[in-house]
Amino acid sequence: MRLSNAALALAILGLGVLEVRAESRHADLLIENARVVTMDETFRVIEGGTIAIEGTRILAVGGGEVSQEFEAAQTIDAGGDIVMPGMINTHTHASMTIFRGLGDDVPDRLRRFIFPLEAMVVNADNVRKGALLGAVEMVLSGATTFVDMYYFEDEVARAAKTVGVRAILGETIIGFPAPDAKEAYGGLAYAKKFIREFADDDLIVPALAPHAPYTMDREHLAEVAGAARELGVPVLLHLSETQAEIDHIATEFQMSPVEYIDTVGLLTNELVAAHCIFVDGDDIELMKAKGVGVSHNIVSNIKAGKGVAPVLEMLEAGVDVGLGTDGPMSGNTLDMMGLLGYTAKLHKLAKLDRRVMPAKDVVEMATIGGARAVNMEDRIGSLEVGKLADLIIVDTDSVHMIPMYDVYSALVYAAKAHDVHTVIINGQQIVRNRELLTVDVEKVKRDVLVLTEQIAKKAEDL
Ligand SMILES: [Zn+2]
Predict the structure, then answer these.
(1) Which of 338, 373, 408 is the last residue of a domain?
(2) How far is the CA of 392 from the centre of ligand 1 (A)?
(3) How far is the CA of 41 from the centre of ligand 1 (A)?
(4) How far apart are CA 310 and CA 312, in angstroms?
């Protein structure tokens, strides 16, 4: 116990100091009376817990006694609600909100519908508007970080910063002219400029996003791998997503897409591979050996009728797996909370075994597992001292959340996006009482709605 200078002086002077108080530490924000789901190594859950935040970081996590240690500028009484790490959406295309619900049941959709539509419609302005809507939707449903691949990623970055959400953003590189590149593979030059612009940003991690093994040639895949090494940035890639991709790579190169990607130098610890539906035991071993992160996108995969990624086998092998919504043209919503139940239930169904994919493992993939997949586990994904203050508060007073015997069960099988009432990212409160504090949501919605008539007209011709 330290005495304040004044108290010390009084004590020395023998003037009868009756009260000696411990000096309290300063915090910017205290969250008290919380059911803290830490997602730390021991999966500690603290009833009546407190979290102290100073600047962008978590200063303390503990029981009610922590409250006594701090003098806080602001206090939030969680009222017994769940406080947990913000979720990490490890794969999406946020700007595609402008296309949500178009051509949903069209076969061979990517080539016959999406690519031609994007060529006609996508520009910097509507990428920004779509990304704003997407970022708003993600934050309101409990994501505090998202991983995005698209065109004009500098616009997505500005949208993410406006909303105040953390993002790993990969500029798409593809083997034909794209909305932001007149030449095939022009995305690489665009990406280099984008990476320079956002190199030191506190919310944005710029990345390279080669589209897929089947939309680029070998030489350019290798060039992207070299650029990623040189620039020290993550690489985002669609991998082993369809049977057609498997057949194409097998015919051309007599190997699996995972093996093929390894031969061009892309299969590294910096890779976040989306989908990985058609991978076998050898592929999984190779992914583990190379430290690849996997984004599992169950809702998108169900809707497209693609297949079930062998995630149980990946987890068993020790591969880092996070969860993703995929783009809003694929999964239609960017709702991470809604994804949790699907993830647990589909794997149980696929294995005809209710024991597999327990709720706790699903919450792990949505938080610290996703952080590991994107190599940010030292900064985000769990509530621990020194980590960035990215967290959400989930209402436990909703009708469907009562009673709550098991917090992981409640989150996975019962909670809804709307139960997220508070969101803090990088120490900043972004959502209070389910209201976004950073942008005018009505304007964000209007800005997208004015685009839709023209988009619908163009889509009719496809
Ligand atoms: Zn995708």
Answers:
(1) 373
(2) 25
(3) 30
(4) 6
- 331 and 215 fall within a common domain: yes
C-alpha of residue 102 to centroid of ligand 1, in Å: 16
* Distance from residue 92's CA to the centre of ligand 1 (Å): 6
pLDDT, one tens digit per residue, over 241-273 is 999 999 999 999 999 999 999 999 999 999 999
Q: What angle do CA 103, 108, 109 make, to 5 degrees?
A: 30
Write down the pLDDT at residue 285. 98
Handedness of CA 368, 239, 347, 135 (dihedral sign): positive
Task: State the distance from the centre of ligand 1 to the C-alpha of 157, rounded, in angstroms.
Answer: 18
Q: Are residues 23 and 92 in the same domain?
A: no
Q: Does the residue 404 lie in any domain?
A: yes
Determine the distance separating the centroid of ligand 1 and the alpha carbon of 67, expressed in angstroms.
43
pLDDT at 2 over 60: no
Residue count (the chain): 462
437 C-alpha to center of ligand 1: Å? 29
> What's the pLDDT band for 105 if we cut at 50, 70, 90?
confident
- Are 208 and 270 in a shared domain? yes
Residue 25's identity, in one-letter code, is: R
| Gap from CA of 104 to ligand 1 centroid (Å) | 15
User: In a 10 Å sphere around its CB, with 0-12 CB exposed, 13-18 middle and 19+ buried, how is residue 219 labelled?
Assistant: exposed
- Does 101 lie in the same domain as 75? no
31 C-alpha vs ligand 1 centroid, how far in Å?
36
**CATH number of the domain where residue 269 is located:** 3.20.20.140
The angle formed by the CA atoms of residues 260, 265 and 266, to the nearest 5 degrees, is 80
Residue 341: closest CA among 365, 319, 318? 365
Looking at the structure of the chain, the number of domains it has is: 2
156 and 207 part of one domain:
yes
Quote the tokens at residue 400: 């469907």
Centre of ligand 1 to C-alpha 414, Å, is 27
Model confidence, pTM: 0.94
Task: Report how far ligand 1's centroid is from the alpha carbon of 88 (Å).
Answer: 15
Mean pLDDT across the chain: 94
Shared-domain flag, residues 70 and 106? no
Expressed in angstroms and rounded, the spacing between residue 232 Cα and the centre of ligand 1 is: 23
Is a pLDDT exceeding 90 seen at residue 22? no
Residues 207 and 240 in one domain: yes
Judge whether 201 lies within some domain: yes
pLDDT 10s digits, 193-209: 999 999 999 999 999 99
CATH of the domain at 430: 2.30.40.10
| Ligand 1 center to 254 CA (angstroms) | 25
Ligand 1 midpoint to CA 93 (Å): 6
Name the token pair of 455.
């988009």
pLDDT class for 17, splitting at 50, 70, 90? very low
Cα of 274 from ligand 1 centre, angstroms: 7
What is the domain range of residue 239?
87-373
359 CA to middle of ligand 1, Å? 25
Please write the tens of the pLDDT for every residue from 380-401.
Answer: 999 999 999 999 999 999 999 9
Judgement on whether residues 250 and 366 belong to the same structural domain of the protein:
yes
